[in-house]
Design a protein that fits this description.
Rossmann fold, 4 helices, 5-stranded parallel sheet, about 120 residues
Length: about 120
């Protein structure tokens, strides 16, 4: 599966991690269509954007990203979680979703995105 031109939405509350993530995704051929550093901003953007996939940091300034995940799920947009807290930090409803354990590298990011996109295609 080619990642070139795929549109991605990022929710990440650490500015430096967001910048590195945007650069990594661009190198892979993704188009970053939106990003959010705060939960309320993420919810507003998740309701309106058009994207193929999302990367969601689980903990956004001490708040769970679960409302954003639920919204994306209801819109049929696949996503992966990122966290330094491990699988136990995943919202129960989304316990089976792919998880990038921080710190992760570009290859782990690419593999997780390919996995979730392939599953999304298979489910369609």
């Amino acid at each position: 599966m080619s990642l070139a031109g795929m549109r991605v939405f990022i929710v990440e509350d650490e500015t430096m991690i967001l910048i590195v993530l945007e650069d990594s995704l661009a190198t892979m051929g993704f188009e970053v269509v939106a990003s959010a550093l705060e939960l309320d901003e993420a919810l507003a953007k998740a309701a309106q954007i058009t994207c193929d996939v999302a990367v969601l940091d689980i903990n956004i300034a001490g708040r769970s990203v679960e409302p954003v995940a639920n919204l994306l799920e209801s819109r049929g947009i696949p996503f992966v979680f990122a966290s330094g807290y491990g699988r136990a930090a995943l919202p129960v409803r989304h316990g089976g979703r792919p998880l990038l354990t921080k710190p992760y590298n570009a290859e782990a990011l690419r593999a997780a995105l390919l996995k979730v996109l392939a599953k999304s295609e298979a489910d369609a």
